[in-house]
Amino acid sequence: MESPKTIPHEIGGLRNDPLRNGLHGVKSDIIGSHPLESSYHSVKVTQENMKKKILANTYGAAFPLKMELDRQIISKFVFPSLLFL
């Protein structure tokens, strides 16, 4: 018997595809892709925390918790990239 001439392809499960995911290396796992990337993420976290504090001071302590719970529920049904919270 001859083996099949087709190559199986997994669209969603393929992890070792350098054309789609970039080259893999140990250094890229340790260090971010760009020096400003860590700064961007820390500023984003700081802004989210500040927004939660402002909402808690304005509407009460339960309001940011309710918003986080709503975000978690909605993220199960909507793609995370479509959430603008």
Provide structural commentary.
- Pfam families: UMP1.
- Belongs to the POMP/UMP1 family.
- One of its GO terms (biological process) is proteasome assembly.
- Keywords: Chaperone.
- With 85 residues, the protein is mainly alpha-helical.
- The chain has one domain.
- 56% of the residues lie in helices and 0% in strands.
- The protein is built from four helices and no strands.
- The chain is flat and about 70 Å long.
Gist?
With 85 residues, the protein is mainly alpha-helical. The protein has helices at 18-21, 26-30, 35-59, 62-75.
Summarize the SSE layout with pairings.
Blueprint: H1 18-21, H2 26-30, H3 35-59, H4 62-75
Cα end-to-end separation: 57 Å
As residue ranges, the low-confidence spans are: none
Helix content: 55-70%
Number of strands: 0
Strand fraction equals: under 5%
Order of helices and strands: HHHH
Would you tell me the overall average pLDDT? 76
Instruction: Characterize the main sheet.
Output: none
Our Rg estimate from Cα atoms comes to 21 Å
Please give the domain count. Answer: 1
Count of helical regions:
4
The class by helix and strand makeup works out as mainly alpha
How does the overall form come out from the CA principal axes?
flat
Pfam families: UMP1
Keywords: Chaperone
GO biological process, one term: proteasome assembly
GO cellular component, one term: nucleus
